[in-house]
Amino acid sequence: MNGKYYSDYVIGTLRRQMRAHRRNLERRPLFVFSCGGAEDASPPHPARGNLEAFIARSKSPALDNVFCLKAEAIAANRVFDKMDLLTQEAIIADVADWLIIFAESVGSFCELGAFASLPHVQSITSVAVDSRHKGAKSFLIDGPVEVIKRASSPLSKVFYLDLDCPLASAEFTGFVSSIRVAVKDGERLKDNRGRKRLNDSQGFINIGSLVHELLDLVFLMSPINERDLIELYCILKGFDGAGLRIRSRVLTLDMNKGDSVILRTDQAVSFMIASGMVESSGGRDGERLLTSSFLLHDYFMFKSDRSGELEEIRKRVALDKRRDGVGGSFYRGCTM
């Protein structure tokens, strides 16, 4: 790891600002994974794009640090090589804070059935169904939709609406606008406890929490190469890099995969790139140089930066790298 950029002072400051146990549920980044039909299909399915635009354009502080991610980008980029799509979707569920399925295509019907069959995913899954099907008798309505409804979680909602214009539904729009409250309330449920706890044992690194923790570091240290990112993470956590065991909570608890699926750090980073959390460019020695795609308003692994120490560190490291010709900006759309 480059000691010039990641000096004892930088490491000491980061350690001092790390959260011990409790995370800030009021402000931490939230990930919304939406499933549905393709926007470029004929006819098109605009629901997910409308949701993403609504959250991105919102001026409400309640939707600060809320980001929409698309599940199919993970599969398209072959992040989890040799894994079936059901296993991949279970890992995506670990990272998600809220899963919203627009039931409008064959693929989305299958995803709904899959998520409804996983107890630790039901409680964070909502489904939007065309209002024409309300009260109908069908396997879709009486099967997986009913399962989601009976999960009785703050996040397991069923919405009947116009799938071409879901935000015309005041109920749906109001729920999206209060999603942070629902996520916080949902973490009190038995099946949700520990979903996004801070990783404290290298023998069981929760992929859902790891992605959050790495995103914090990429944002603060942008641009950072992949090797330095993982080494810095291990130093801060006190982990031996060779002993990391990255696992999926859903695969372990719901699908009995256990030790049969141990993820690699490069897969975690590739997941972040494919889902749009970070951007990747070619660095020196052919390594991936990572830059945050998001302006984080608060952190997962670190405390709220009321003292300004983290902002000072972020600027210092970025200036040192820029002087050395290391490319990248603080985050997309931001200049110094």
Describe this structure in words.
This protein has helices at residues 8-17, 47-57, 72-76, 85-95, 106-116, 119-122, 139-150, 170-177, 179-186, 207-221, 226-237, 249-253, 265-274, 309-323; strands spanning 30-35, 66-70, 98-102, 125-130, 158-161, 205-206, 224-225, 246-247, 278-282, 288-292. It has 14 helices and ten strands. The protein folds into two domains: 8-18 and 197-323, Arc Repressor Mutant, subunit A (Orthogonal Bundle), CATH 1.10.10; 30-189, 3-Layer(aba) Sandwich (Rossmann fold). Helix content is 41%, strand content 12%. Strand 1 (30-35), helix 2 and strand 2 form a beta-alpha-beta unit. Residues 329-336 have low confidence and may be disordered. The chain is α/β, with parallel strands linked by helices and 336 residues long. The strands form three sheets. It has a five-stranded parallel β-sheet, with helices on both faces. It has a three-stranded antiparallel β-sheet with strand order 7-10-9. The protein is globular. The two termini are 25 Å apart.
